[in-house]
User: Fold these one by one.
Assistant:
Number 1:
Amino acid sequence: MIGNKLRLYREQAEFTQTSFIKELAKYNVIVSRQTISKYELGITRPSTETLVIIAKVLNKQVSDFLEDSNELFVGKVLDQLIKEGRIKDPNNIPKNLLDMLVSAIIEDVKSRIKKE
């Protein structure tokens, strides 16, 4: 779950929720303490671009926050795109990129199963 890992990594980095919010704001990610709390409790999830910034602030990779195999694959793809410099500005990532990639993977798997 993203929330559990977010809290763990935030605390390991010795950020309070308030200090973490201030650090995110340096990257133009403006969220409230309540929003961070909702992320950590699993009530809501950060957008793809917000997760990329969270990973950067906490010196982690996007894939470090993901558990589901499809999401983990997409996270690794995002990590690679960032590493290659193909994603320079996380604020320009389509908001639904993660959902689009996961949907594409699911459709691909379904079509492969039908062929078998």
Number 2:
Amino acid sequence: MARPEQQKDADLEQESGRKKMGRRKACKFCADENLKIDYKDAGCSKYFIADRGKLVPRRLTGNCAKHQRERSAGPCPAPA
């Protein structure tokens, strides 16, 4: 008697201790060309900044490397 595919997958997950990865999140800024990165825009920034003020990593937000660097740059520091 053959086991269903779902049962086989569940058994493999339990044996290896790892979960299957889902679909990767798409970068919001690459998907929508009209969306610009602006550190002053609170509505856009709330998805990328944690409650303590730290930046959320790109593996959680789905940003590409280019746009994550732009998010982290923020305003230029004042000259000394």
Number 3:
Amino acid sequence: MAYPSRVLGSGQPGASATAICGDVATGLTAAGTNAATALALSAVHNVVSTTAASTGVRLPPAEAGAVSVVANDGASSLTVYPASGTIDGAASVAIATTKRRVFVGTSPTTWVSVLGA
């Protein structure tokens, strides 16, 4: 991933820096109890601050090479659903409180993930 300051420093406008580096959404509140009712994510970097029990978020549609990061800063475990297909071969994955997960699209219906600290 590129750093926004470096993209801007090369003379690119702000909108180009966001398109290249990705946008950030903070203060998100998880919702719903399944893929259809979960909060739909639209940013590349997502910080979920409020997680009631059994609530979740839904990644955007997968595409090869796409990257999405989800941080759970809420009080409960966060369930992450794909828009369609699977994540790590399953219908959903969980992120424990204070943990982060990086998702990488490998096909139009498949995300793989790496759980971080």
